[in-house]
Design goal:
Order of helices and strands: HHEEEHEEHEHEHEEEEEH
Strand content: 15-25%
Distance between the termini: 6 Å
Strand order of the largest sheet: 1-2-3-6-7-8-11-12
Shape: globular
Radius of gyration: 18 Å
Structural class: alpha/beta
Number of strands: 12
Largest sheet: 8 strands, mixed
């Protein structure tokens, strides 16, 4: 039985934020194993998907830390750190972990250092500018970044970032699969979620993609051509402003892959289509990766899991 966690008090100008004393993947006595979708009956058990989502919310927060912290946090979880780029200068950061059944690749979101000294409104404005600025937000053909025509057009900034690490990520996953074939799960928070989505589209090897506060990454063709074998779960708090960027307005015809699962402190999730996700009270604190993990944990605790 899980004990409900206190919802973190998040400062306006700091994300990703860790509460004092936060322990990744803890308490060990209350967590349940990550269950591959190929396990008997797992695909038909919604609770199992939520259990995995909690693991991935933790992975999406952990990827913001350095390599030594990642290795320490994974101790006793059954997962091993297999490959990582966590201090790359100018490169997107990511890690790959595995156990006997799954490989998980987690991508880091936007770096905190870019927003030091800004309040919440300033951070949102800065992110919005970077997401819609000329040259980065233009929809470029995925073929320009190693994809094919079915992948449609994607956010140039996200695609350029992913292209810098695509080779190393692919090399790591292929090597792990050669050692032992396993399910591949991509995950990430914020921009990390967009990179996870691009990885699944480009490599077409994903069992599932689970993202948190993920911005839109591509157009209608990108969405319709997304590999059908990949299960997609996209978590969003109702007032997370970053998950609604770039806007669905001309000339940027952006779309999300799959509906969003909206979750807040009521712990009553709601599915919403891309068109029905406009936040009522945008608040950057509702974008924090720590919040997503706490809400999913409490959703499971409320249901006695």
């Amino acid at each position: 039985m899980r004990t409900a966690k206190s919802i973190p008090t998040l400062p306006e100008s700091l994300y990703p934020h860790l509460s004092a004393g936060h322990r990744f993947f803890a308490p060990a006595a209350e967590r349940t194993p990550f269950v591959p979708l190929g396990a008997s009956g797992a695909c038909n058990e919604p609770t199992r998907l939520w259990l995995n989502a909690w693991w991935l919310a933790e992975m999406s927060l952990l990827v913001y830390r350095d390599r030594s912290e990642v290795a320490t946090a994974l101790a006793g979880t059954g997962f091993s750190l297999e490959a990582a780029c966590l201090q790359g200068i100018g490169l997107p950061c990511w890690f790959a972990v595995s156990n006997q059944d799954v490989i998980i690749v987690s991508f880091r979101g936007t770096e905190l250092a870019q927003f030091l000294g800004l309040d919440a409104a300033g951070i949102v404005a800065s992110l919005a500018r970077s997401l819609i600025s000329t040259g980065t937000a233009l929809l470029y053909p995925m073929t320009a970044f190693g994809g094919d025509a079915r992948n449609g057009h994607v956010h140039a900034g996200f695609a350029q970032a992913f292209d810098q690490v695509a080779g190393s990520v692919r090399t790591a996953v292929v090597a792990l699969q050669a050692d032992k074939p396993r399910e591949v799960w991509y995950t990430g928070h914020s921009q990390g979620g967009a990179l996870a989505t691009l990885a699944a589209a480009r490599f077409a090897d994903a069992t599932a993609v689970v993202t948190f506060g993920c911005p839109r990454a591509g157009d209608d063709t990108f969405v319709s051509g997304f590999p059908p074998a990949a299960r997609v779960w996209r978590f969003c708090t109702p007032d997370d402003p970053i998950a609604r960027l770039p806007a669905r307005v001309w000339p940027w015809d952006y779309r999300h892959v799959g509906p969003a699962t909206l979750l807040d402190e009521t712990l009553e999730p709601a599915l919403r289509s891309d068109a029905g996700e406009a936040p009522t009270s945008p608040d950057l604190r509702r974008h924090a990766p720590l919040l997503y993990g706490a809400l999913i944990w409490n959703y499971l605790a409320k249901r006695g899991v």
